[in-house]
Prior knowledge:
Blueprint: H1 9-26, H2 34-45, E1 49-53, H3 60-71, E2 75-79, H4 86-90, E3 91-98, E4 101-108, E5 115-119, H5 126-129, H6 133-138, E6 140-143, E7 146-149, E8 155-160, H7 173-176, E9 179-184, H8 190-199, H9 214-225, H10 231-242, E10 255-257, H11 261-277, H12 285-296, E11 301-302, H13 304-308, H14 313-323
Helix pairs in contact: 2-11, 9-11, 10-11, 11-12, 12-14
Amino acid sequence: MPSSPHASEAEIQALAPRLQSLQAALENVLFGQRAVLEQVLVGLLAQGHLLLEGLPGLGKTELVKAIARAIGLQTRRIQFTPDLLPGDITGNPVLTEDAQGRRLVFQPGPLFAQLVLADEINRASPKTQSALLEAMQEKQVTVLGETRPLPEPFYVLATQNPIELEGTYPLPEAQLDRFLFKIEITHTSAEVLERIVLEREMGTPPEVPALLDPTTLRDACSLARRIFMPKVVANYIARLVQATQPGSEGPGSQLKFGASPRAALALAAASKARALLRGNPNASFEDVQSLALPVLRHRLVPDYQARLAGNSTDSLIRSLLASVSPEGTALAPTLRDAKI
């Protein structure tokens, strides 16, 4: 258990309105995607890395740049391509000459920033993708045997195109597990498209006011960790994750690989962050249920029979939520009727 006291009502009410104002400002950047924006802010508060998936042109990159402007984070963008090398990300030693003679001096790469936009991450080779593993987990990079810390805070917000598109490489499972959320951005309605046509100009980024600063963001992340986690909610998270293990009854029987303890920790941290964003003093069952999809969808691998039956990972998670009751009583699940 953490030794720090739980977040007080006064602390929450002092910070929550500012976070909600940030979300409202981002809704003027990415129209009609309120749930996506909430998940992105929850991920930042939980100090997690985010994977945004969607077809080109849906606003993934523009959203990340808007977040950087609104919070004032030092940002670097890496455009992932098939010929990108690991050293192009982490940095390389460069031979320099001075009064002491020739020597190798390390030149930091674009990974040394508070917010790294890894654009189209799945267009790079697996070798280059793996260069992010140490940075995302340990917040440091090791080059030529020397370890260098990354700035604080440190976030990787990666965008990827659906794997069916030409020229993409699937991300390794070990790297996928480093992402707190996998957020899917889908097409919007005709009404939202009309608003985009009326209020946007091609090549002109939307105006975003500076609403927070990195220090305030760090304070918010610290406060999110102190949000109270009731034992019954922790038990619910544990039972959800346990139910994903192969051999379990219900949806778990259709999975080749289930979620790890890291997934349980991710779901707990995200639930507390969502409670803070909504101005609540403790995590709830609703927080867990609303975040189960982005936390679990990239950590579960359906088996052959599930894929053959046309059951997607998301449908299995919905079935899981229907079969595991918050109160601990098993329900009768069906993939057709399961809803969040």
